[in-house]
Structures are given as structure tokens and as C-alpha cells.
Amino acid sequence: MRDSYINAMNTQKTTVHWMNAISENLVNMYTPGYRENQMTFKTYLDAAVPDIVLKNQGQGKAIPGTSPENVFLEGAGFFVLRNNEGGISYTRLGEFKFDGDGVYRAADGSKVQGYILNDRGEIMSGTRAISNSDLEDTISQGGALSIPTTEIKLWIDPDNGKYLGKYDEFEIKEDGILYGKANNGKDTTPLYKLALMNFHNPQELFEYKQGQYLETEYSGKPVIGRGEVKSGSIELSNIDFKANALYWQQANTQLDLSGKIMSTYKQLLQSAMELLS
Fold first, then answer.
1. Do 66 and 182 belong to one domain?
2. pTM for this one?
3. Which of 4, 29, 133, 248 has its CA 20 to 30 A from that of 175?
4. Is the same domain home to 173 and 146?
5. What's the whole-number mean pLDDT along residues 193-200?
6. What is the residue range of 252's domain?
């Protein structure tokens, strides 16, 4: 069985890891799309040791974006991105914009994924339409949508300056559908639907770069997400400042106590050595 000195030393190491996670949270209090670190612990005979740092995938607050092309997701799920190598990742940060070629991209250049719609707003799978009722049934059952996603593209016709050659403007509605608008907004046509995905264990996603996640064995496969999309906003971090400030105080107290235990142990050991000499 480990003695009190070893227990105190291990607790001190654990506390330093905990404080680093809290410090990262506080530094990123106002970082858009940042997810809060949450450390869990497991206990052995040699005191508490860190188990894993999970990402809190709870909702963050909406703040104004820099463009109406930016989007905020209120609800459970993630936007879907595809990088230049074809890899898929997931993000809550909808800091998206159309590039010069009309491709809808994230800040790092990844292509935002969506589905092509017909005139009735139904998702097209090849030549077959997926009815909205079938889609709702799939969502309610927590299922996946086995339809490949596509890039969202609104090229501008150089001859008339219109999107796709016939739309004066576009609008992204709450249901995640991008509409083309013509005739001074009187005519609207559904063009794309933003792909939203969720996971049964989203906290187990792997963050391979800040704000972007990959599925893992423990997160499970993606299923259809549900949420309300708000144009012109992005999501701030989901940091709870008061809670993290309290955790910091607790960790600091724990660090002091373990340090005092180690100091006391050394003093007792020195006294015992003096008695033996």
C-alpha cells in the first residue's frame, strides 16, 4: 500500500493537469466555437489520477457574425465539413463564407456539406426524392441519412451578376435550407439543405484541430442532427465562467494541501533520522 507521501505527490500531479484544463477554458472564454474541457478522475490506492479530458458539447451563446453567410446552430448536432483530401469532420462553429468560385467554405478552406433539394424542398438522392415525412421519421428514431453530402455552391453568372444565373440573392432559413430569391424576393426556390449530424456520445469525438472533430469508436456513427439554424450569427464558447473559477479555487486548495502533506512528511522523516543518529 502506498504511503501518504506518494498519495500526496500523485494528487499534486493530478491537480496540475486539472488546473491546466481549467486555465485553457478561462483563456478561451470568448473564443467562438470553443468547447469546455471537463476532466474526469479515477481513484486507486495511490490517490486520484486523471482519467480523461472530455469536451463539453453543450450549447454556447449566439453572437453576431461578420456576414449573413455565417450560421449559428441552436440545438444538438454539428455542421459537416469535407477537407481537400476528402476527409469528413464536424464543427459547431459556423463561420462560413462563399469563396470567389461560389463554394461555401469554413475558415480553414474545408467545404461545408449539404444536400441538393428539388423545388418542393425535398432532399434528392440521385433521381429519387426523400419526402420530408420520411426524413422526420428518421430523425425521430435517431437514425442516419445514407445519402452522400455535396458541396454547396452558388456561382455568379458574369453576364448578369446573378447567383446560378437567375437569383438576385439568397437566404438561409431556420430549417437550414438555402433559398435562391428572384423577382425582388417574390420568388423563392429551395436549393440546398445544410447537413446536420449528431452522435450518441458527442463528448467522445476527437478534436483534431480547434473546433473541428472526428468520429471515434466511442462516439458512434453520425446520425441526423436536429436544430435551428440562424443566419448572421456564430456560436461563442460554452464556458461557464463561475463554475471554472470555483474549480480553480478548489484545485488551488487541493494543491496547497498536498504540498503541506509532502512538507510535513519530509519534516517527520528528518526528525526520525535525527533520532536514529
1. yes
2. 0.83
3. 29
4. yes
5. 94
6. 4-56+239-272
